[in-house]
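Pasting as-is:
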Amino acid sequence: MEIAGPLTHQIRDVLRLKPGDRVTLLDNSGWEYQVELGQVRRERVAGHILQKSLAASEPRTKITLYQSLLKGRAFESVLEKCTEVGVVAFVPVVAARCIVSSLEDIGEKKLKRWRRIILEAAEQSRRGRLPILRPPSLLRQAWQEASRGGLTVVPWEGESGNSLRSVLRGAQPTPFSVNLFIGPEGGFTEEEIEQGQRYGAIPVTLGPRILRAETAGVVAASAILYELGDMG
């Protein structure tokens, strides 16, 4: 096996690995490889595959996180932590209370940075597949997209009847994919929640405590994976 590109720098200069050292490599198709390094050069790294196995880190339940855009670095924190937890896809969403009001405000430079954050978090947590960063979307378009498949839930501070647990346990059959919508600072408006309900979204409560917008996605994704048996 030969490795080229930026990964050679990480192996040689960051991790300072040498011939004879062993590493775990992921191919983004669900497989992981135990490799013993043979040559470690500036341009390329060569090694011998000792073992190939299915990566055990990918959850059965596929969560797509529709995360409303947040201030500062909060959105980046969501990408990082939810990648570690097990989210398989992210959709940046522009909602009424977002500081960003137009998709044109999200440039390629920012998208490139977000992809890099997801990549680094996936490597750190040994994800078998790299989570997908989908194109940014207006909220109405996001509701429409989510309505095409999977269970759609939206934690909302105005909901008191449906708990996330009761909705997950009541879903028949057990959902294979879940669309999780998280609002911006200040949350979704009542009109936005009503709009989502018309597309099949189910408002849920996460309990008596009000979570920050950058915390809610991590908590909800973890709770979904735990309830559906993907956290061990």
